[in-house]
Design a protein that fits this description.
The chain has 394 residues and is of the alpha+beta class. The chain contains eleven helices and twelve strands. The strands form two sheets. Strands 1, 2, 3, 4, 5, 8, 9, 10, 11 and 12 form a ten-stranded mixed β-sheet that branches. It has a two-stranded antiparallel ribbon with strand order 6-7. Strand 11 and strand 12 form a beta hairpin.
Length: 394
């Protein structure tokens, strides 16, 4: 069995904001260093592997950013590392991969996490197939979404992420007003969490940024209602009810039961279930429904036993569609704010969810929780956690 011993992240910065000058490998190294600072008794030579998530990899995060960050963080050169890419789910995928390695005995202590600097993601120029071709060439942004699309892909699969979720809105009839209410709640809960000190032990400052840059305590329904639809003139998705482009990193320490002796502390939570799911690429926002259902089934649980959910808020409409499909109380979802307020640095969001979920379970005295994330091109991941302060691992 695999256990969560510690989790930390950097603050999440706005696109072009306070973290714009920080390289992604330095962001990742800051998260790793902060994680090691949470377990001072740990001899870092005992870390068996680093599994790191990153959705871009086209710029300063190239060449296995997990390995680069491990070296920059001061971890011994003998600690290996790999970088995985499952787009928005990259770091949750890293946690799943790390936990599997522990479960089968290939490792006893694994650093997992992820990073994204959407600000510093480069423009790329496609390489010409022959020297000095005639005509113009176009620089392509790698910050988000499709680029250099294969012409064999059906058009409906390669719609923009926003267009896909406008189609989801049409399918389920989730109103603009309901989306804006969900977005306002995200900001209010995130602001309250910061004010109460909830995030103080979960976030390591960097570049003079001490808190998430996107949280707006004064967000109101009136202000959200005044925003113009971003993707269709008659659409419902705006800059206010969707997650922003962001920069940041997050990290978690996973280990086996025997790892507690070298970590110097008891684990906080047990990974009780994990699952992936996929459907048509344009339906990616709804994919967490099946992923979470499968993860719960693997853990031998049902939704009635779940006390906390951390669901990545890529868009308010897709989060609401998932909540409705699960038939759960919305009040147990993202009780300390979500990505609409906190930010969504793609490769860092999965382990941000997992670390927050472990802390929320302890705070709320709940035994079981679910972390779930939708992923572009029609995928999703989910992990079930058991709070070990209440539960006894089977």
């Amino acid at each position: 069995m695999s256990y969560l011993f510690a989790g930390i992240r950097t603050p999440f910065g706005r696109f072009g904001g306070a973290l714009a000058g920080v390289r992604p490998d330095d962001l990742a190294a800051a998260a790793m260093t902060g994680l090691l600072g949470q377990v001072p008794a740990l001899d870092p030579t005992q870390v068996d592997d680093i599994v790191w998530g990153n959705a871009n990899g086209a710029g300063e995060d190239n060449r296995n950013v997990g390995r680069m960050a491990g070296l920059l963080s001061g971890l011994p050169v003998t600690v290996p590392a790999t970088t995985v890419n499952r787009l928005c789910g990259s770091s949750l995928d890293a946690a799943i991969i790390g936990s599997r390695a522990i479960d089968v005995g290939d490792a006893h202590l694994v650093v997992v996490g992820g990073v994204e600097s959407m600000t510093r993601a480069p423009w790329i120029l496609p390489k010409a197939s022959r020297p000095y071709p005639p005509g113009d060439a176009t620089l392509v942004s790698t910050s988000l979404g499709w680029r250099l699309v294969n012409p064999r892909m059906p058009t409906e699969w390669t719609l923009s992420l926003g267009e896909c979720n406008e189609e989801l809105q049409r399918r389920f009839g989730i109103s603009r007003e309901r989306q804006d209410e969900f977005a306002a709640r995200s900001h209010q809960l995130a602001s309250q969490a910061w004010s109460s000190g909830f995030y103080d032990s979960l976030v390591v400052p960097i570049a003079n940024l001490n808190g998430d840059e996107g949280v707006r305590p004064d967000t109101s329904l009136e202000a959200l209602a005044a925003l113009t639809p971003a993707f269709r003139p008659d659409g419902t998705i705006t800059a206010g009810n969707a997650s922003p482009l962001s920069d940041g990193a997050s990290a978690i320490l996973l280990g086996s039961e025997r790892a507690a002796r070298v970590v110097g502390r008891d684990p906080q939570a047990r990974i009780a279930g994990r699952a992936a799911s996929a459907l048509s690429p344009q339906e990616f926002g709804f994919a967490p429904v099946e992923a979470a259902n499968r993860a719960l089934a693997q853990a031998g649980l049902d939704w009635g036993q779940v006390g906390a959910v951390e669901l990545n808020e890529a868009y308010a409409v897709q989060a609401l569609a998932c909540i409705d499909a699960w038939g759960i109380d919305p009040e147990i979802v993202n009780t300390r704010g979500g990505a609409i307020a906190l930010g969504h640095p793609l490769g860092a969001s999965g382990t941000r969810l997992l670390g927050t979920l472990a802390a929320v379970l302890r705070e709320r005295r709940e035994q079981w929780g679910v972390a779930a994330i939708c992923i572009g091109v029609g995928q999703a991941l989910a992990v079930v956690l058991e709070n070990l302060e209440l539960g006894v691992a089977a």
